[in-house]
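Input (structure):
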C-alpha cells in the first residue's frame, strides 16, 4: 500500500498545491494521504469528497506529529528532495522490496531530521520544481505507469473519454 505524507502545509498559501498533491497521490496509486503542518479541514473535506465520488477508497487524515508518522511507519520510507541522488539510481531497489511505501514530500522548508529518518532520499532531477510533479513522477515509475489503466469499481462518476468534448457517466 502507498501512503503519501505531505509535510509543512500552510493554510491559504498552500491550499491548491496541497490539494493537488493529494489528488495526484490518489490518481497515481496511493490509498492514504496524511497532511501535516497547519490543520486545514477544508482540504480534508474537499479531497474526501472527490475520493467518494470518483472512487478508489482514498483515506485522507491530518497528523501534526509527522515525526511519529515516519517513525511508526512499517515499510519503506522515501523522501523526495532535489538535494539527493537521482531516482534512476535507486528505483529498482525500492521496487524490489515489495513493501508498503511511505512517500514523503515537503513544503517550503523540510526539517533536517527528515533526511535522517527516511530510508531513501530521492531526487527527481536536481532542479527545484514542485511536490506535485515529484509525487507524480515517482509514483509513475514505482507503479510502472499504473495510472494509465486505473479505474475504480466503486466510482459514482467516471469519464467517458472522447476525442473532443466532455462526457461523464454517473453510476
Ligand atoms: N528547496 C526545496 C527542497 O528541499 O527540495 C524545494 C521545495 S519544493 C517547493 C517542495 C517539495 O517539492 C520538496 O520538499 C520536495 O518534496 C519536492 N521537490 C521539489 N523539487 C524536487 C526535485 N527536484 N526532486 C524531488 N523532489 C522535489
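Output (sequence):
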Amino acid at each position: 500500500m502507498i501512503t503519501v505524507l505531505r509535510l509543512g502545509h500552510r493554510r491559504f498559501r498552500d491550499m491548491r498545491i496541497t490539494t493537488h498533491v493529494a489528488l495526484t497521490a490518489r490518481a497515481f496509486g496511493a490509498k492514504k494521504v496524511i497532511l501535516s503542518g497547519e490543520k486545514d479541514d477544508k482540504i480534508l473535506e474537499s479531497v474526501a469528497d472527490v475520493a467518494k465520488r470518483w472512487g478508489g477508497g482514498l483515506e485522507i487524515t491530518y497528523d501534526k506529529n509527522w515525526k511519529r508518522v515516519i517513525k511508526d511507519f512499517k515499510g519503506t520510507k522515501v523522501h523526495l528532495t532535489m538535494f539527493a541522488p537521482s531516482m534512476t539510481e535507486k528505483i529498482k531497489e525500492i521496487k524490489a522490496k515489495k513493501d508498503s511505501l511511505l512517500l514523503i514530500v515537503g513544503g517550503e522548508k523540510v526539517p533536517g531530521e527528515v533526511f535522517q529518518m527516511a530510508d531513501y532520499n530521492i531526487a527527481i532531477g536536481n532542479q527545484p520544481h514542485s511536490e506535485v510533479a515529484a509525487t507524480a513522477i515517482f509514483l509513475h515509475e514505482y507503479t510502472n505507469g499504473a495510472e494509465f489503466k486505473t479505474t475504480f469499481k466503486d466510482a459514482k462518476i467516471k469519464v467517458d473519454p472522447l476525442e473532443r468534448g466532455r462526457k461523464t457517466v454517473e453510476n
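Notes: Residues 80-82, 105-107, 110, 123-125, 127-131, 134 surround S-adenosylmethionine (CB under 6 Å). The chain has one domain: 2-170.
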